[in-house]
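Example record

The entry below shows one chain as it appears in the dataset: sequence first, then structure tokens.
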Amino acid sequence: MFFRKQEVEAPAQTEDPTGLREKCRQADVPENVRAVLESEIGRMEKTDSSVGEYSIALNYVETILALPWSALTQDNLDLGQAAKVFDGSHAGLGQVRERVLEHLASRVLQTKRQASLLVVDDEPIARSNLRHVLGREGYDVDVAANGEEALELLRRKEFDCIVTDLKMERMDGMQLLEAAREVAPEAKFILVTGYATVDTAVRALKTGAVHYLSKPIDLSELREAVRTALQSRTRHYTSRAPILCFVGPPGVGKTSVGRAIAEALGRRFYRMSLADLRDEAELRGHRRTYVGAMPGRILQALRGVGVRNPVFMLDEMDKIGQDVKGDPAMAMLEILDPEQNARYVDRYLEIPFDLSEVLFIATANGVERLAGPLLDRLEVVQFSGYSEAEKMDIASRFLLPRQLREHGLVNPYPDILPEALVRIVREYTNESGVRGLEREIARLCRKLARLRLDGGVEAVAAPVGAEGAAVLLGPPRFRHDAAAAGAIVGTATGLVWSETGGEIIFVEATRMTGPGQLILTGSLGGVLKESAQIALSFIRSNAVALGVAEDFFEGHDIHIHIPAGGVAKDGPSAGLTIAVALVSLLTGRPARSDVALSGELSLVGRVLPVSGVREKILAALRGRAAMVVLPAANAADVEALRESVGELPPVTLVERVEQALAVVLDDKGGGACTD
């Protein structure tokens, strides 16, 4: 009696203490996800809340419930409104604007396309009745008397759903179903028969029919079967979104265009920078067994925006790095592949999640650093640099009003004349985009803000012209002296493309006594060095025709230099410029510095086409070049640019080096260089 056992009643467990079961019941999730949630919640109820596994399971369940499994925003498919959004927020979009409107147009056609049905029955009364009933539902209905006639219609027109009788002469419903799998594999079949048996029903469903109805037909059952079949067809048409990749120099508006696309579509926008991405697990997520595990960036972003069809911008994709933790660029393959991302599996979640409704937009300065398999999944949209007229339009419509408001220069606005903006564009910026232009306008506004604060409104009452802008901004930052340098022996002006846009370079050549070496300086890459070797070989093999002494290389070294040695240079477009500089040196004929060249050279003297023509010609415009020499194979690029930009410098198209030499070299030279 001294050791009587006392029974202590355990405290009654409150049912569903965390409320997860109720949340799971109310959540709009797929059935496979609901099964996982029920399993995890059941495991949690058997685990003490003080155990570490309990908190891991709790975080896992809450993460699943927080994801937008079915939440969607309705797309705005008004093309006119979308065009107004782009025209009101951007200038000089050109190809980009058209590409987005084309995407919207395809969505409009998919949404507004009337569903087409085909009724196949050998009884005229049955065909007529079914056509009448289904036509009243808003469907476009065609009829056929037998399987052969239906097959001919399938070869000429696409049908979403086919309602066919099973017993017919000249190809019955089952034969039509088998034959149509090759002609129209996406069509949904509904078989109708007055001789329904279990065997025929099983055979029909195994062959590919989605429904099997018996006569006499229940019209409500028929309507529901057709509606169900068309719903799956609609999902097939609208499930895939394009993977756009905006490629262009900095400051041309790639990110802001992504925001405009989201606004035009009526979707939510999310931007994720990939410049600091090094670990593959940041994208794919961590497994739950790790401490501090969490989903990848993609699912975290979707959890934040709350819908599964946002406009998702992957910024700076070409800056992705890799280390011992994996290659994040390869992890992008599953995310961006339209054939795979409908069932994307995050390592933390371990449940397929549908990313096919997300409109992914990637940005990059160039595609050279992108892996081939990744680039193959992207639709590249090229962003080109802006011309001076386009920069003026952007500055006057967007940049200047925004900077005046941000610096408090309102009531009234200062009068900044267009000539001041022209001065800023020409002498204080040297870029393809407008980021530097906005910085200079902001600097001008800060100067005006201080003047107004010190002297009142009267201090900035006078209009700011070109001279006033120069006084406020100080000495010019850039001098475009391509046209002012005159004609120089051994120096030619070239056009090159870089990640920041087109640029003007000067190729210098000189000769000195030596053992016969070709010296190349200026941080040149392997392709540029090969171009110099090709140019020298062409000149040596055609010395007489070019007016050069045949023994010019004996006992002499030739030194080719491209200034700005701190900047690495490479690319297949400087061969023509190097050849012109060498011929100018060896013949003593000065080369016109106001003529800019771009073109690759072959050993037999043919001028090969180059890329980046728009950026190069715009660089020639900024440099005040009097003429541009390009390969004849780039004629289509020049015409396309002429239509979009308008005023261009004279462009001479050449097929051989001799044609370029006739344009660039001055005939008043001192003859062949013999030293």
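Notes for this example: DSSP finds 25 helices and 23 strands in the chain. The CA atoms of residues 28 and 70 lie 7 Å apart.
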